[in-house]
Amino acid sequence: MSEVSIFSVDTLLKYMGNDDKARAMVGKIVADACAPGMQPLLLAGTAIREGRLTDAGKMLHTLRGAIGTLGAKRLVSASLELEQALLGQHTEQIPTLFASVDAEYRLVLHAAENWLRQNAPEQMR
């Protein structure tokens, strides 16, 4: 059984031709997806603290969609759990689930930075 991935653009590279041009395009996708850094999660956390659970859920859904293309299956799973808790207003579960999303998102950003350092053209870094 394969390990659920933190970050993997191998499939995306394969579909795009797995050559230098594909690597440059994927590098741009990765850089663009990670450019906001922790800001989306900080905004979602603020919305949660302010009781705007629906807004927080929408923010997390957007983040999940943007980062999901990077093969971040663990983050996608954690975010989906948190989104469902927000939707169901299961406030007792939200802090633990948010901490899990935060940890996974940090791992994705770190892995993406490493991938960019090793694979993307200089102007992408």
Walk me through what this model shows.
This is Hpt domain-containing protein. Residues 44-101 form the HPt domain. The structure is a single chain. With 125 residues, this protein is mostly helical. It has one domain (10-124). It contains 6 helices and no strands. It has helices at residues 10-15, 20-34, 39-49, 53-68, 73-87, 94-119. The protein is elongated. The mean pLDDT is 91.
Task: Summarize the model shown.
This protein is mostly helical. It has one domain.
* Poorly predicted runs: none
Beta-strand level of the residues, as a percent range?
A: under 5%
Helix content: over 70%
Q: Outline the biggest β-sheet.
A: none
Domain unit count: 1
In DSSP terms (H or I, runs of 4 or more residues), the helix count works out at 6
Rounded Rg: 15 Å
| Structural classification | mainly alpha
List the helices and strands and how they pair.
Layout: H1 10-15, H2 20-34, H3 39-49, H4 53-68, H5 73-87, H6 94-119
Helix pairs in contact: 2-6, 3-4, 4-5, 5-6
Task: Provide the descriptors you would attach to this structure in a database record.
125 residues; Sig_transdc_His_kin_Hpt_dom; protein kinase activity; elongated; mainly alpha; single chain; 71% helix
